[in-house]
Amino acid sequence: MTDAAWIDRVAPAYVRSLEVYQPGKPIEELERELGITGAIKVASNENPLGPSPRALEAVAAVLPQLHLYPDAGGHALRRALAHSLTAALAQSAAAKGAHIAPERVALGAGSNELLYQLVLATCEPGDEVLSHEFAFLSYRLAAAVANRAFVAAPTTAALSLDVGALISRISPRTKLVIVGTPNNPTGSVVTSAELEQLLAALPRARCWWWTRRTASTPMRGRRSITPTAWPPRRSTVGWSCCARSRRSMGSPGCGWATRSPIRRWSICSAG
């Protein structure tokens, strides 16, 4: 039996139907092919300014402990994130000073890891994951890898979230609704009014919602929702943020998510 035949025999059909990921070429190889230097991979959300000097200092400080396993619980980082979020919530009229405890923060190697865990933790066979047709590709892939149905609502002509269209796609099988702001790759944002409209339409007894945001993203002139502008809600799984900014480092990127302790537990258990 050939390797291909063996894989076809033992791998589930939904896994065999997935397209093999094609990574981009390294910058060095691309520069050689094109005869250029100083290329910047805009598609990878990498910044042209280099890493922050403070980040380099922090990395250098932990190098003597490189032979040790890292803290799998991320206790110090979760405490720092919880403290920062609570401080921001204190300034938010909508959140009314809600408190974020460290046990309500989940960490991942980028928010994609948390997304895949979230689908496994919340959706059973037959459930649907709902987003829109130009949403971040990983939403669709996370559902496909878990053999869950993905439903894509149409967008506006400007490729922005059409809340009405999204609501019209909610069905008895909808278990998880995912929106991104700013959306990757279109750059559109979700406003507070749009999110309120969506939340009002969700059947809270059986539906979770998840909002993915790129942290520290400049939103000049546009009123986008932020994690600290919204208090915890019963149907909320949480906010995930990819810890990148214009002076961030791509390689040691970190994703985090927050809301209730029991839901953080469910996400971490699925991982």
Task: Report what the structure shows.
- The chain has 271 residues and is α/β, with parallel strands linked by helices.
- The chain has 2 domains: 3-44, no CATH class; 76-270, Aspartate Aminotransferase, domain 2 (3-Layer(aba) Sandwich), CATH 3.40.640.
- The chain has 10 helices and 7 strands.
- The chain has helices spanning 3-10, 13-16, 27-34, 53-62, 75-89, 111-122, 137-145, 163-168, 192-201, 261-270, and strands at 105-108, 128-132, 149-153, 174-180, 208-214, 236-242, 255-258.
- Strands 1-7-6-5-4-2-3 form a 7-stranded mixed beta sheet, sandwiched between helices.
- Strand 4 (174-180), helix 9 and strand 5 (208-214) form a beta-alpha-beta unit.
- The chain is globular.
SSE inventory with pairings:
Blueprint: H1 3-10, H2 13-16, H3 27-34, H4 53-62, H5 75-89, E1 105-108, H6 111-122, E2 128-132, H7 137-145, E3 149-153, H8 163-168, E4 174-180, H9 192-201, E5 208-214, E6 236-242, E7 255-258, H10 261-270
Parallel strand pairs: 2-3, 2-4, 4-5, 5-6
Antiparallel strand pairs: 1-7, 6-7
Helix pairs in contact: 6-7, 6-10
Considering the protein shown, what is the CATH homologous superfamily of the largest domain? Type I PLP-dependent aspartate aminotransferase-like (Major domain)
| Total number of strands | 7
What is the count of structural domains? 2
Sheet having the most strands: 7 strands, mixed
In N-to-C order, the SSE pattern is HHHHHEHEHEHEHEEEH
- What is the alpha-carbon Rg in Å? 20 Å
Q: If you average the pLDDT, what whole number results?
A: 79
Q: Tell me, what is the CATH class of the largest domain?
A: Alpha Beta
Q: In one word, what is the shape?
A: globular
The stretches of 5 or more residues where confidence is low (pLDDT under 50) are 215-224, 243-250
CATH fold label of the largest domain: Aspartate Aminotransferase, domain 2
N-C termini distance: 33 Å
Q: How many H/I helical runs? A: 10
Annotated CATH architecture of the largest domain: 3-Layer(aba) Sandwich
Strand percentage, roughly? Answer: 5-15%
How much helix, percentage-wise, in residues?
A: 25-40%
What's the arrangement of strands in the largest beta sheet? 1-7-6-5-4-2-3
Provide the structure class: alpha/beta
